[in-house]
Design a protein that fits this description.
Blueprint lengths: L7 E7 L5 E6 L2 H10 L4 H4 L5 E8 L2 H12 L3 H8 L1
Antiparallel strand pairs: 1-2, 1-3
Length: 84
């Protein structure tokens, strides 16, 4: 599901241990498969399976990167509120 319009997607995964992982991509389906296969991130490799619990479109890679850092700075409680 690569975005034909050039947008990027910011996403939050819930890992099997209940923790959250935040990332960004321009092809969410491919990236999720990489996480499930243990090829995407050292963090999620040992916390599989993962589930997408939140995503949002961003207008550029730069915007997605800034948004990723904003979300990573949130507390767990704030992330849960965003997901809800």
């Amino acid at each position: 599901m690569r975005n034909k319009d050039g947008t990027w997607i910011l996403y939050i995964l819930r890992c099997d241990d209940g923790s959250f992982y935040t990332g960004m991509t321009n092809d969410l389906a491919r990236r999720l498969n990489q996480h499930q296969d243990g090829r995407a991130s050292r963090y999620t490799r040992s916390r599989r399976p993962v589930k997408i619990v939140y995503s949002e479109s961003c207008i550029s890679r730069s915007h997605a990167l800034k948004r990723e850092w904003e979300i990573k700075a949130l507390s767990r409680k704030e992330k849960e509120k965003l997901i809800a």
